């Protein structure tokens, strides 16, 4: 077993001071699976104050018996800065369904292993590579099973987040959930409401980021957890589409996630939630049902979902931007470089490849065999062709600081309005983005009143946007 030198030294030092010491939990599981552990945890019968005497460069800032032992910078391997060394403990009462009401330090290892969540995590190993396994964890690893320690309902009543952790381990390890453990989750699913949204967020991101994220979403649905975490997605179950779609909205969403090659969780979430607005936007029944503007409805719904689950502002903007624009129209015979520049302005250059990744997942999730048709390849070519063309005021060859002395006006909204009009014209023809034209044109625009400038800029932008939207609806009668 390949245990880092620093971890071995901590174990040796504890034993030298006549204490028991074991690596414990996930690191033992990972070693048995021939994986490199991300974290190393040690358990011991030494009390926190005794651990701190053995390791002078350590700190103890909690009530759970966990001491952080610092690894000297020159001795660090694999960026291992601290190792958690925790006193054997048992736990009593979980009135908030999350944290123990009482923590008791114990003298025996078995007491510590009894409190752990799953058999595959209730393993301890000493320096001789001898494994203590009281609950059949090694057998479950061989059988690829996630099983709760003892009575599953008791484990989930102690800590409701363990229900999501069960699914997370199942998808990260590609294990199956033991039937009794799964039934307990289904029975107690409503208790997830006692868990903070931040903790749910963390587990959801780990599930979505795994190689078997689709399996995770289906397990959340099967165990009833999904209706408490993302009820809006649960509402897509059984919602039929129309003659252009084989799958229901929920099935299509899950299949889109399955076919998302991009491994970033933000893109995967966009794939999962991109049609979340369809149940609300649905008009009509059967093969002729329509879902006009479902992308805008979906973006608003996704924003509420993501904010509720405590995603960062950057994540919320990135994901909702993709959902709002996933219906972009593109026909190689009709779309001009100007319309591609407008799409770049609307979506953001940094999000273009993500948008294509979402579109490919959407297509494959609909049962379309050809993921990257000619038009999407052509769009990638056009993106590259126009990537340096002006799509924002900042890219104009003239700025506000230059306009004020040129036009002899003070800082005012009129400067911004003139720049907006200039941009709308340059988007149509990038050749106009030169100092000579912009100087001349800005003098002409300065003769107009502010309201006229604002209306002119708005008209140009809205006119093109409506033109694009009409084409989009024409090309995508329904999604």
Notes on the structure:
- With 479 residues, this protein is of the alpha+beta class.
- It has 4 domains: 5-141, 2-Layer Sandwich (Beta Polymerase, domain 2), CATH 3.30.460.10; 144-229, Hydrophobic Seed Protein; 258-389, no CATH class; 393-475, no CATH class.
- The chain is 52% helix and 8% strand.
- The protein has 24 helices and 11 strands.
- It has helices at 5-16, 26-32, 48-54, 109-114, 137-143, 152-158, 162-173, 179-188, 197-209, 213-222, 226-229, 231-234, 249-258, 265-273, 278-281, 294-308, 313-325, 337-347, 352-364, 374-386, 400-407, 413-428, 435-445, 450-475, and strands spanning 21-24, 41-44, 58-59, 66-70, 82-87, 89-92, 102-105, 123-125, 131-133, 145-146, 176-177.
- A hairpin with a 5-residue loop joins β8 and β9 (131-133).
- The longest helix is centred in the last third of the chain and has 26 residues, at 450-475.
- The radius of gyration is 29 Å and the shape is elongated.
- Mean pLDDT is 87; it is low at 472-479.
In short:
This protein is of the alpha+beta class and 479 residues long. It is 52% helix and 8% strand.
Q: Which term fits the overall shape? A: elongated
Strand order of the largest sheet: 3-4-5-2-1-8-9
Strand percentage, roughly? 5-15%
Percent in helix: 40-55%
What is the mean predicted local confidence, pLDDT? Answer: 87
Structural class: alpha+beta
Sketch the major β-sheet. 7 strands, mixed
Low-confidence stretches: 472-479
CATH topology of the largest domain: Beta Polymerase, domain 2
**CATH-level-4 superfamily name of the largest domain:** Beta Polymerase, domain 2
Strand tally, please? 11
- What distance separates the N and C termini? 53 Å
Number of helices: 24
Rg, rounded, reads: 29 Å
> What is the correct CATH architecture of the largest domain?
2-Layer Sandwich
Q: What's the structural domain tally?
A: 4
**CATH class term of the largest domain:** Alpha Beta
């Amino acid at each position: 077993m390949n245990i880092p030198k620093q971890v071995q030294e901590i174990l040796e030092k504890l034993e030298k001071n006549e204490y028991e010491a074991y690596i414990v939990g996930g690191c033992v599981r990972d070693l048995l699976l021939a994986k490199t552990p991300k974290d190393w945890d040690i358990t011991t019968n030494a009390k926190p104050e005794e651990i701190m005497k053995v390791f002078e460069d350590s700190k103890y800032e909690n009530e759970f018996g966990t001491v952080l032992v610092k690894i000297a910078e020159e001795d660090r391997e694999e960026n291992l800065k601290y190792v958690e060394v925790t006193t054997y403990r048992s736990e009593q009462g979980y009135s908030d369904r999350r944290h123990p009401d009482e923590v008791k330090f114990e003298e025996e290892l078995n007491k510590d292993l009894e409190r752990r969540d799953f058999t595959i995590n209730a393993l301890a190993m000493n320096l001789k590579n001898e494994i203590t396994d009281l609950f059949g964890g090694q057998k479950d690893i061989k059988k690829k099973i996630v099983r709760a320690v003892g009575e599953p309902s008791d484990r989930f009543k102690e800590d409701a987040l363990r229900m999501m952790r069960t699914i997370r381990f199942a998808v990260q390890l590609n294990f199956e959930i033991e039937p009794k453990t799964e039934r307990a989750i289904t029975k107690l699913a409503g208790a997830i409401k006692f868990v903070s949204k931040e903790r749910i967020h963390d587990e959801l991101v780990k599930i979505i980021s795994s190689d078997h994220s689709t399996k995770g979403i289906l397990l959340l649905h099967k165990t009833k957890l999904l209706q408490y975490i993302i009820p809006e997605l649960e509402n897509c179950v059984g919602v039929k589409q129309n003659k252009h779609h084989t799958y229901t909205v929920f099935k299509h969403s899950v299949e889109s996630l399955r076919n998302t090659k991009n491994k970033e969780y933000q893109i995967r979430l966009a794939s999962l939630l991109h049609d979340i607005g369809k149940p609300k936007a649905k008009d009509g029944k059967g093969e002729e049902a329509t879902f006009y503007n479902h992308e805008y409805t979906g973006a608003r719904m996704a924003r509420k979902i993501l904010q509720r689950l405590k995603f960062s502002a950057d994540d919320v903007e990135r994901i909702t931007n993709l959902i709002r624009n996933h219906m972009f129209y593109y026909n190689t015979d009709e779309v001009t470089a100007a319309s591609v520049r407008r799409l770049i302005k609307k979506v953001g250059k940094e999000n273009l490849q993500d948008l294509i990744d979402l579109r490919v997942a959407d297509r494959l999730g609909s049962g379309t065999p050809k993921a990257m048709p000619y038009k999407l390849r052509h769009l990638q070519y056009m993106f590259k062709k126009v990537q340096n063309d002006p799509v924002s005021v900042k890219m104009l060859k003239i700025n506000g600081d230059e306009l004020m002395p040129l036009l002899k006006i003070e800082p005012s909204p009129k400067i911004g309005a003139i720049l907006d009009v200039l941009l709308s014209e340059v988007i149509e023809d990038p050749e106009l983005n030169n100092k000579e034209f912009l100087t001349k044109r800005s003098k002409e625009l300065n003769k107009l009143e502010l309201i006229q400038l604002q209306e002119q800029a708005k008209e140009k932008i809205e006119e093109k946007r409506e033109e694009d939207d009409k084409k989009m609806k024409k090309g995508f009668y329904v999604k």
